[in-house]
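Hi F.,

I've been meaning to write this up properly since the lab meeting, where we talked about keeping a consistent format for the predictions we share between groups. The idea is simple: the sequence comes first, exactly as it goes in, then the structure tokens exactly as they come out, then a line or two of notes. No screenshots and no reformatting. I'm using this chain as the first example so we have something concrete to point to.
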Amino acid sequence: MGITYIEGEVKGPNGKNTSVRFLVDSGASYTLLPQADWRAIGLAPKRTVTFTLADGTQIDRAVSECHITLPQGEGHTPVILGEGGDEPLLGVVTLEILGLVFNPFSRTLQPMRMMLA
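Output, unedited:
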């Protein structure tokens, strides 16, 4: 598994935005914003979700929504509201919303191939 970072911008309901350097994490469901970033753009918790970490530990985190812009696309996505020490992650739900997939060989984001049934 390669490590890839991507620059993005997030915007909150108050119209404020901030730049974030995300670690692309194909093992993470949701995108995570560090506390300073989600507070800067005015996000508020909408619900709490229990997440299971790779080691089996369960943690509760507040979840909200924001607009995200990446070089490959933009859209509205759910985000985990990080707590102290949490790092920014770009998860697969956001990638799917934007119609993107992570190519682990080239370590790039690419358009998703659409399959018609």
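Notes:
Residues 6 and 22 are 5 Å apart (CA to CA).
The first strand starts at residue 5 and ends at 11.

If this format works for you, I'll send the rest the same way.

G.
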